[in-house]
Hints:
The protein is of the alpha+beta class. It has helices at about 1-70, 70-80, 80-95, 105-110, 115-125, 135-140, 145-155, 200-210, 255-260, 305-355, 370-460, 470-495, 505-515, 520-525, 545-560, 620-630; strands at about 100-105, 130-135, 155, 170, 175-185, 190-195, 225-230, 235, 265-275, 275-285, 290-300, 505, 525-535, 540, 565-575, 580-590, 630-635, 645-650. The protein contains 16 helices and 18 strands.
Amino acid sequence: MTSVRLRLLILALLPLVVLMPLLLLVAINRWSANYDSLLITNVTSDLRIANQYLQRILTTTGTEVTALARSLNFDAVAQGDPADMSAFLDTNRRSLGLDFLYYLPLPEARRRGVDWPVIDTAAKGRPATEIDIFSSRDLENLPDTGQSLATRAVVPLVSTRAAVPTNRRVEDRGMVVHTATPVSTRGREGILVGGILLNRNLDFIDTINALVYRDTGRTGDRQGTATLFLEDVRISTNVRLFADERALGTRVSAAVRGTVLDEGQTWLDSAFVVNDWYISAYQPLIDSFGDRVGMLYVGFLQAPFDAAKRNAYLLVLAAFLIVLAVSAPLFLRLARTIFAPLERMTRTMERVEAGHLDARIGPVAARDEIGTVAAHLDSLLDQVQERDRALRAWNDALNARVEARTAELREANAKLEITYQQLVMSEKLASIGEITAGVAHEINNPAAVIQGNLDVIRQTLGAGSLPVITELDLIDRQVGRISAIVGKLLQFARPGEFGTFEEDVEIASVLRDCLVLVDHVVAKAGVTVVIDAQPDTPLVRINPGELQQVIINLVTNAAQAMKTGGRLAVTTHAESREGHPGAALIVADSGPGIPEDKLALVFDPFFTTKQGEGTGLGLSVSQTLIRQAGGLITARNRPEGGAEFTVWLPAQVG
């Protein structure tokens, strides 16, 4: 029910808590982008006005100087005394608002035109007006007012945050509105040159600011600034460092310089201006040589507009929170009328699942679909409880019948299993008994012939048999061994017809005899045999032939398991088990080991891992012989690899 409640809440609150904020966020972002675009549009318009005013200054200056050069007064003065010309030009310079005005004869104008394209154009007969950068020496060399202009042009540089680092201390060059017009009078040809120094020309920059950002006295007017840059240095500005100090000598940021002066693009974006952020527009200024020598800037303070945007965000957020605070509790109250009956149903079903079939939902106040479902559910629970009673009765009866039949089947199955095992063993032993009689007869006859001939050899050779007496004795013993093995085979097949003869046996001695018999098997497999017979190994009570049969079987199996090379370790030592002293014989090989799922079956009769090569009786017979002697034989896989068989026999008593 928690998941149903959660899903209902999500379905109801998703439009209010998630979708509405997303829509508001998209709308606010769109509005913010449009708002920023509008600010950029405004500052673009401001820059256009400032540039138009600068172009008007250039045009007006050129037009006024051209008009003066073509006036009758200038023509009259040009025919008179040169001293009168100087006074005439000085008077007109002041009346036209120029910082310098002088006349150059045509030959000198042509020489000066090499350095100044404006003068060169005028010398060729066309008026020209451009912005040019004059060095301090150029300003000093201007007639009459040159020295004062050079002094006025000097602007100490002020360290500015985010500007390109520089080692310069002052800016002594001058940005000049440079105009020249041809003069053609009777008998005198030349050019008239004039100009305005823009360094510290505060009237010029304040006029731009007044045109662009008119102060109407209304709250919310843009707080605008305008600046003229010589390269990246402010040479005329109304940007303030302090209340009454203009930011002359401060420099533009490296980002703006790179975009405007280096790349020649117009900057239309937010920029850090001296000590605050402004919505800014920067335009490169080109001199008469076609080089970018400065910038014209207009901008207005960004902070009021950021505050307006922030207030708008807060207003929208507050409105959303108010709507959420009013609508969410109302919805939750309405939703509780749905959740309460559903929760009662859930608790009832949990009690039924716990085994309380008498649990019921009871009357529900709701008269809608939920109330109908609750009533139907109670009716279904009544039917379930009744059917449960019937099923329990049938189950008890059925269980009684099943238990009775199961007991009968278990008893019959046990009898069948015992009978089957007896039948299998009887069949196997009967087959072995039939085969053994023939095998014993076929083996005993050659063995008797060998034994008889061995006796003939001893008698014939007499004392001459001494050099081979060891070999003859060994043949004698092995013929007896053959007879004993045949007897043991018959004993395994027909155990009731043979008796056993036990004696005190030294395991190490029997082990050495066995290794002589299986030497050909070990050599053929390329196996290295390592014997570790501890001297404290006690004597054990067992038939030596039986122990020899067990050892031969274990060694042969190990050699065959290793196939092509390996290491066979045979160890004997004293070992007590359950308080009884005894001796242990351990046969460990370095072969692949025994599969884990076959380990418990290795001592079963007829079980073999060498299909087609063995009968599967070796380990079964060995286990039988060891158990008859009161011992125990076990098998395991070694951690380092290979199989390990351990034979434990009780020690001799008395």
